[in-house]
């Protein structure tokens, strides 16, 4: 589903602020893989996710998604292939539009737009049924402006929007980090449910080592722009938090946010 071949990305090249964020990274995700990605600050996790999304074009190498070379494809052109949930709950939705209008936009992703604006009764019923999964009562507030929702409600809605059209690849960029623990757990449980239900290939960046170990079938650790650990199956199941802490200690990238999470 995703093949990354020797990609590199340097910010501010040939300056005192030069930062080699990605160094010849290669990675292959099979259809249905749920990969969790951990690493210290500046390890390259978010840079890799943004390279896949097209937010930043890579300096070298190639990115192939479902057989299509998207290396030089603009971010908005990749959007029809990808679903994405950001760390900031405010970024995934349009605050001034209604809940049903946000869902309608997500439902039309990748389609040609006409001059009219219309949400059919069939769509509304479908959206209500989808919102019931959240158990947040949003199915009874379809015409409410999204800006009136809490951060957790907006993040849960963003997750639904990102998966509504069953993307080729779902990108999750620390999507529970800005939420309180109870809400974060609810959103994470919903994530697992949606990924399993729709058989989505998923790439999830996280600082939470427990979540990285317990979720998904594969774990990747990054350090200084490179992948230093890639485990799956039985090998992943045998890993413990102490094993990860030891690896982080060796790289010198262990920080307080990881320990607290």
- In terms of DSSP E residues, the strand content is 15-25%
So how many helices?
10
Number of spatially distinct domains = 1
Mean pLDDT: 89
Beta strand count: 10
Overall structural class, as computed from helix and strand content, comes to alpha/beta
**What separation lies between the terminal Cα atoms?**
31 Å
* Portion in helices: 25-40%
Q: Flag low-confidence runs.
A: none
CATH topology: Rossmann fold
What is the approximate shape? globular
Describe this entry's structure for a reader.
This protein is an alpha/beta fold and 261 residues long. It has a single domain, classed as Rossmann fold. 35% of the residues lie in helices and 23% in strands. It has ten helices and ten strands. Helix 3 (99-107) runs parallel beside helix 5. The protein is globular.
Which key phrases capture this entry?
Rossmann fold; 6-stranded mixed sheet; 4-stranded antiparallel sheet; 261 residues; 10 helices; 10 strands; alpha/beta
How would you summarize what this structure contains?
Helices cover 35% and strands 23% of the residues. The protein has helices at residues 45-53, 75-78, 99-107, 121-131, 151-163, 181-198, 209-214, 233-238, 241-251, 256-260, and strands at 2-11, 19-29, 34-39, 60-65, 68-69, 82-85, 169-173, 202-205, 218-223, 226-232.
